[in-house]
Design brief:
279 residues, alpha+beta, 3-stranded antiparallel sheet
Length: 279
């Protein structure tokens, strides 16, 4: 230290170190889209739109629309296969594998995965995980973690979910989640570490849901290493809402309300006539 009070400089250095120590860690999220609601699904599937519309929204939500799979990633983790005069790369993601055609020169470098729900919650989000799914979760089966999964705060964490209408799609969706996680762990480790919960939301009958949940439980340990590192993995059953029936029910309620108003108006007129006669 030159030309200053050593004690005051030490105090200043201590304060600066404290600020650095307590500064909140900001997760770097590439290609995110700031949104205030989760009702803007990338898929046009009607059931998925209904599920999204039922998820509670919160400020500080950042949706990550895609997970890039670069050519370098394919070369590093894939096995090169020549087929029909074309080069493919087969990547083993766990229990499942997929082949990807090598990008043609000048046609772009990345293949992208598009998860249904990959969302990061900022440090200002105060809600818990269960609050987010409060109107969606009619039954759930926890594959990893315990029943307390809904009690964990969302601030600074990421969730990853797939949505399928038939319950029979749960197994394929779990394999799909494993592929996403395999890539995220190697290309976006900070985001991977921030993952609090991954899972599948599905429709179908409740009986089918429980049958598929038991199958998923039996094969869970074989799906892949990455999915077993996530604190909570959960399957959620959310019944399909017939929006047209709901509109019809709403119309009936309004019709009944209109009839009630008309009857009330008639009663008021009759009461007025009675009062006039008494006068």
């Amino acid at each position: 230290v030159h030309g200053g009070n050593i004690f005051s400089n030490m105090q200043l250095a201590r304060r600066l170190l404290c600020k650095v120590h307590f500064a909140p860690k900001v997760l770097h999220i590439p290609n995110w889209v700031p949104i205030g609601h989760l009702d803007t699904p990338t898929s046009k599937n009607f059931f998925e739109q209904q599920v999204f519309s039922r998820l509670d929204s919160s400020e500080g939500i950042k949706k990550i629309p895609e997970i890039p799979l670069s050519f370098d990633f394919l070369k590093q983790y894939g096995k090169s296969i020549e087929k029909d005069n074309k080069t493919y790369y087969e990547v083993q993601f766990g229990s499942s594998s997929r082949q990807f055609q090598a990008p043609r020169q000048g046609k772009g470098d990345d293949i992208v995965f598009t998860p249904d729900v990959l969302v990061y919650f900022g440090e200002d989000v105060v809600e818990k995980l269960g609050f987010l799914f409060r109107d969606v979760n009619h039954a759930d089966h926890v594959l990893r973690g315990d029943e307390s999964w809904g009690q964990f705060h969302l601030a600074g964490r990421t969730i990853l979910f797939e949505i399928t209408e038939p319950a029979e799609g749960i197994q394929k969706k779990l394999d799909q989640l494993q592929r996403y996680l395999f890539v995220l762990k190697r290309t976006a480790p900070e985001m991977y570490k921030s993952l609090l919960c991954v899972g599948v939301m599905c429709n179908g009958t409740m009986n089918d849901f429980w049958v598929e949940a038991k199958i998923a439980e039996a094969r869970f340990a074989k799906i892949g290493h990455e999915i077993q590192e996530i604190p909570f993995v959960v399957l959620i059953w959310t019944p399909h809402r017939n929006i047209f029936k709901e509109i019809g029910d709403l119309r009936t309620k309004f019709d009944n309300l209109s009839t009630t108003v008309v009857n009330l108006s008639t009663t008021v007129v009759n009461l007025s006539t009675t009062v006039d006669n008494l006068s």
